Amino acid sequence: MLRRPLLAGLLGLAAAPAARAQAPLTVFAAASLTDALRDLGQQWRARGNPAPRFSFAASSALARQIEQGAPADIFMSADEPWMDYVQDRGLVAAATRVSPIGNALVLIAPADSTARVTLARGTDLAALLGPRDRIATGDPSNVPVGRYAQAALTWMGQWDAVAPRLARTDNVRAALLLVERGEAPFGIVYETDARASQGVRSVAAFPAESHPPITYPFALTRRAEADAAARAFLGFVAGPDAAPTWQRFGFSLAR
Q1: d(Cα 121, Cα 123) in Å, to the nearest integer?
Q2: How far apart are alpha carbons 114 and 218 in whole angstroms?
Q3: pLDDT, tens digit, for every residue of 42-93?
Q4: What is the dihedral of CA 177, 186, 100, 243, to 10 degrees?
Q5: Comparing C-alpha atoms, which of 143, 170, 155 is closest to residue 77?
Q6: How many CB atoms lie under 10 A from the CB of residue 239?
Q7: pLDDT of 10 higher than 90
Q8: Signal sequence span per UniProt (predicted)?
Q9: Ramachandran area for residue 100 (φ above 0: left; ψ -120 to 50: alpha; else beta)
Q10: Contact between residue 6 and residue 235 where contact means Cβ atoms under 8 Å apart
Q11: pLDDT at 19 exceeding the cut of 50
Q12: CB 206 within 8 A of CB 152
């Protein structure tokens, strides 16, 4: 279940005139949030605020950049463990942490593929690949989508067979691109990424019970803990005004 602590304080600041500082915010965000966040950034600017500066990459890369002193105001991760990583090191304000949205995990193929697959325990994914082809996904050693993929493949009983056949990428959008280009016949990505691309189609969804819930924790970094503008933007993207946009891009909302 998605975690959603009380947002009253953040939401109150979202409309506060004091939040309209001149300096733009720097937001470090998971690559899978790219399209929705760019839309929300335009909405934020239309409200009279400076446009946020976004840095999109794998959550692992962003967390390590924050650890190394990168000047981020807000961190938006694609999984809880990488937020735990920065929180355990005292790099984010724990009281501001909220997980307002979620996602699903899907198997994709190029748009012109005719492949049909049912994802269940025992489904032989390796047999779909032929002798040399690979399945594209994030590197399971550190990229959230790859970790979810590993969990799902393990649940299916396919991890040992498929692990050597993975095309391991730095983030989910790189995996998506390999399938779009036809360089991999299948990929494991988030449902929202599949929806955003005209070059792929979703072949099947992995059962929800096959992997940990896909949730996106957001938090202020310590450097921005007292920044009214940062609190206001976090309240906006985690609150009801942003909910229709998240849903339009295919994300689920916390209940």
Answers
A1: 6
A2: 38
A3: 999 999 999 999 999 999 999 999 999 999 999 999 999 999 999 999 999 9
A4: 70
A5: 143
A6: 16
A7: no
A8: 1-21
A9: alpha
A10: no
A11: no
A12: yes
The model's pTM: 0.87
- Helix (H) or strand (E) holding 84, with range, is helix 80-88
Q: Are strands 186-190 and 252-253 parallel, antiparallel or unpaired?
A: unpaired
Nearest residue to 176 (alpha-carbon basis) of 194, 160, 158, 162: 194
Q: Which residue type sits at 110? A: P
Q: How far is CA 215 from the centre of its chain?
A: 8
Residue 83 · residue 30 · CB < 8 Å: no
Q: Which domains does the chain have, with CATH numbers?
A: 8-102+215-253 (3.40.190.10), 105-205 (3.40.190.10)
Cβ partners under 8 Å of residue 154, min gap 6: none
**Closest C-alpha to 112, from 179, 193, 56, 34:** 179
Structural element, H or E, at residue 253: strand 252-253
Name the token pair of 155: 């649940």
200 bridge partner residues: 110
Side chain identity, residue 218: F
Distance CA 73, CA 59 (A): 15
Query: What's the rounded Cα separation, in Å, for the pair 31 and 173?
Result: 6
Q: Which two tokens stand for residue 24?
A: 């733009």
* Alpha-carbon gap, residue 252 to 23, rounded angstroms: 31
Confidence tier at 178 by pLDDT (50, 70, 90): very high
